[in-house]
Amino acid sequence: MLTMKNPVQSVANVVEHLHSCAQAAKTKAMRDPGVNATTERLGVETQYVDLVIQFIGAVNIPKMDVVGTADPYFNAKLDQRLSYAQVQLICLERLQANQTTFRSSVQSSTLNPAWNEIWQVKNVPTSATLSVVLRDKDEGALIDDYIGKFETNIHPGVQDVEIQGPMGLRNRGTFWLKIDSLPSQGDPALLPYLFDGPVHYSRHSSPTMGALTNLRDTRLYSTWKVYIKGVPRIFGGEVQGWNRTYKAAQSIFQGPTSIAVRSAIQAGHRMLYARTVTNGFGVITTSEHVFCLLHGGTHRSSLDGTVSFAHRIKPAVYTYIISTDDETFRFSETGAAFFVDFASKHALHSNCAESVRYAGEFHPRPEGGWENFTDNRGDNEVEWELVIDNNSGTYSPSPALLPKLKEIMEFNFPGYKVVALNHDDPELNASREACRAYAMSKRGVTERELQPHVAEGEETLLYRVSGKKPRPDAAMCPMSTTWE
Q1: Are 112 and 59 in contact (CB under 8 A)?
Q2: What ranges make up the beta strands (E) of 272-373?
Q3: Phi/psi zone of residue 167: left (φ > 0), alpha (ψ -120 to 50 degrees), beta?
Q4: C-alpha to C-alpha distance for 149 and 162, rounded to whole angstroms
Q5: N or C: fewer beta carbons within 10 Å in the chain?
Q6: Strand, coil or helix: what is 340?
Q7: What does DSSP assign to residue 377?
Q8: Residue from 246, 251, 261, 203 nearest 227 by CA
Q9: How far is it, in rounded angstroms, from Cα 198 to Cα 217?
Q10: Other beta carbons within 10 Å of 441
């Protein structure tokens, strides 16, 4: 919806951006080896704590629109670590940089938002500073409006902190939070600022979702981003670079035309993973939470509009990556409509990152396989497995790291036995085909839904970002198990 903005807000946004740039430069200076060496010579011993930060909420934040109130959310950082995370930095800096930003949900139409969201971080120096920036979500805007910010220490207890606005503006409201801390164990300097949960996720709806969704599963228009833990500890500094022998990857990362290809993919990524008031949010602590994440969504009959299997685990294959940027596990159904005409599914999820932690596909299956399952049995009556692989031509992940991938998935998704298989393992192909066969024979999924396609008259994501209409055969993509 088009909103009328406060005229001073544009200036405030510029001021905040300039301050963020200055803060990034300051953080880079603090990381200078000379600064660290001086600290060591002074004999200062750093103490570390494990934190549980509860972001309770805020009161009396200002109206951000001439008409309406505000849709506030916030980002929180510890010591501005994320500002210097670059691909070319050494492994230790990569480990310190990732997962040190907390991104909240968007609270709709309120000046007194209540979040009650938890952030757990291990091995944090007692001298650390917690920085929080609040913004107002504006649908369709390039930049969300800046509300204000504050900085505080990490001393335990309840804090009520005044939110400071730009250009000397005050009265931007009060933010409430609670901090608990315990002394860190072991050698915390090896893995400082280690994200420790809770594992939480956001679900995003594709902007291509339209009138035709009454005929299709809404999951085909969704992406998920799961903030998982344990990645630095288990993977260490291992990353998977793009596959220089793979033609699709070459078109994205190499040659004079690659800039245009990347630009379209990155624009699509921003649309798919945009933070909006319609996003779904949740926390994963039990097997039931994992089951809900993989439920079949809403599949409506074109004849009578009835809903079927919405609360059953869906037999579906998913495309995923584990990001090097923020250590998130990002995925969508492999047959998602928005993949049509994009060079790489995995690059769309990774935002064209030149490297990822890992990538491939996964699918759930009941113990014994889908071929031996019947819908007469409830999902809670069987044991479930998560079959995950390295089926990505864009990044070609090393099969030697499959045991570590298994460890990470079992650590984050309780209640599932994880089976990690190489992309050319015959067991993987058999399991994947059994999953798809069950979807078609028992759940009313059509063969066309198993691969990216567009229905007649449907607008694609690529068209949204570039104005290019889909190829005439885009709706006729054949089933394939080749690398993407």
Answers
A1: yes
A2: 280-284, 318-323, 328-333, 355-366
A3: left
A4: 9
A5: N
A6: coil
A7: S
A8: 203
A9: 29
A10: 11
Q: How far apart are CA 9 and CA 15, in angstroms?
A: 10
- DSSP, collapsed to helix, strand or coil, labels residue 204 as strand
Q: What whole-number distance in Å separates Cα of residue 374 and Cα of residue 447? A: 20
CA 410 from centre of chain: 18
Tens digit of each residue's pLDDT (9 = 90 or more) over 112-137 = 999 999 999 999 999 999 999 999 98
Q: Six-digit token pair at 476?
A: 């006729």
Look up residue 29 and give its amino acid. A
* Whole-angstrom distance, CA of residue 252 vs CA of residue 353: 10
The model's pTM is 0.81
Alpha helices in 426-482 (DSSP H): 426-442, 461-466
Q: Minimal CA–CA distance to 304: which of 210, 215, 212, 209?
A: 215
Could you give the 3-state DSSP secondary structure of residue 237?
A: coil
Give 438-474 pLDDT, tens digit per residue: 999 988 887 877 777 666 666 667 767 766 655 554 4
- Check: CB of residue 53 under 8 Å from CB of residue 176: no
- Please state the separation of Cα 230 from the chain's center in Å: 15
**What are the tokens at 170?**
């005050």
Q: Where are the beta strands (DSSP E) in 206-350?
A: 222-227, 240-241, 280-284, 318-323, 328-333
d(CA 367, CA 365): 6
Residue with tokens 């979040």: 115
- For 257, residues 6+ apart whose C-beta sits below 8 A from its C-beta are 251
User: What's the pLDDT tens digit per position in 149-180?
Assistant: 999 999 999 999 999 988 767 778 999 999 99
For residue 168, count other CB atoms closer than 10 A to its CB: 6
Beta strands in 11-88 (DSSP E): 48-59, 72-78
CB 406 within 8 A of CB 418: yes
On whether the CB atoms of residues 193 and 130 are closer than 8 A, the answer is no
- The H or E element containing residue 388 is strand 384-389
**DSSP E strand boundaries for 104-233:** 114-125, 130-136, 145-152, 157-162, 174-183, 194-195, 199-205, 222-227
Higher-confidence position of 434 and 336: 434
CA-to-CA dists, residue 274 to 75, 211, 266, angstroms: 14, 21, 12
Q: Which of 184, 115, 113, 187 is nearest to 154 (CA)?
A: 184
Q: How would you classify the pairing of strands 194-195 and 174-183?
A: unpaired
Using alpha carbons, select from 148, 143, 145, 144 the residue that is nearest to residue 166: 148
Joined tokens for residue 294: 């993989």
Alpha carbon 339 to chain centroid distance?
17
Please give the Cα distance from 363 to 265 (Å, whole number): 25
